[in-house]
């Protein structure tokens, strides 16, 4: 390090970033991802998802597009919403009855800091089951039994068409949908 270097430290940086995440949880500004789960849409931020979930991080790195529409199948909306609360705010409140399905969703999405929800023997047996499912699957990409069937840049018109398609539930995926099941 040279003697002429200056180091400037932002006091309270961690608190500031944490506060920004909390604010963004319920603001629509800068949202660049739509999650679709159990017939409901959740607008969120790619940066947050990628920083908290290895699954989302891999998806966004593999498909570096401006906007994503991700269809989550096999997930409960309440679990996804709780996980987003945790990612944005660093905490969540839930009942004891919600814990088993939330643990499964957290494991499947590889949510950081929630690994301690599952004990080691449970985690090992679930990972082995996921590996078996992954090996037997013939799809393009699988992540812990999460299937990504296609992706691409989603223009506003394509996004509106994809949303209409998702609302019909029975229709097949469009070219720009991501399917996580």
Overview of this protein structure:
The chain is of the alpha/beta class and 181 residues long. It has a domain at 15-118 and 147-153: Potassium Channel Kv1.1, Chain A. The protein contains seven helices and six strands. The strands form two sheets. Strands 2-1-3-6 form a four-stranded mixed β-sheet.
Radius of gyration: 18 Å
Oligomer: single chain
Biggest beta sheet summary: 4 strands, mixed
Beta-strand level of the residues, as a percent range?
A: 5-15%
Count of extended strands: 6
Outline the low-pLDDT stretches: 130-151, 170-177
Number of helices: 7
Query: Portion of residues in helices?
Result: 40-55%
Q: SSE order, as H and E?
A: HEEHHEHHHEEHE
Assign the CATH topology of the domain at 15-118 and 147-153. Potassium Channel Kv1.1, Chain A
Mean pLDDT: 74
- Please give the CATH architecture of the domain at 15-118 and 147-153: 2-Layer Sandwich
The CATH superfamily of the domain at 15-118 and 147-153 is identified as: Potassium Channel Kv1.1, Chain A
Counting helices, strands and paired strands, the structural category is alpha/beta
The dominant shape is: globular
Measure the end-to-end span.
50 Å
Keywords: Nucleus
Pfam families: BTB
GO cellular component, one term: nucleus
Domain BTB: 31-96
Which helices and strands, and how do they pair?
Blueprint (H helix, E strand, L loop, with lengths): L12 H12 L8 E5 L2 E5 L1 H7 L1 H9 L5 E5 L4 H13 L9 H11 L10 H17 L4 E3 L2 E3 L7 H12 L9 E4 L1
Parallel strand pairs: 1-3, 3-6
Antiparallel strand pairs: 1-2, 4-5
Helix pairs in contact: 2-3, 4-5
